[in-house]
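Here is the promised in-class demo. Please do not try to memorize the tokens; focus on the logic of going from shape to residues.
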């Protein structure tokens, strides 16, 4: 049971990080684009929530 929860958290965090990397694309200027930023920030928030749970 505990293992399943940890695996789920890890998978969620990995998906969020993957999505951030897709949008950010190692280009700082992408963070100046509000549309892209609106994708990155919620993903970061979700990672923080999952880590703290």
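The designed amino acids, position by position:
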């Amino acid at each position: 049971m505990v293992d399943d929860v940890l695996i789920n958290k890890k998978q969620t965090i990995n998906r969020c990080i993957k999505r951030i990397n897709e949008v950010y694309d190692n280009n700082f200027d992408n963070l100046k684009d509000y549309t892209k930023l609106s994708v990155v920030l919620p993903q970061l928030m979700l990672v923080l929530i999952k880590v703290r749970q």
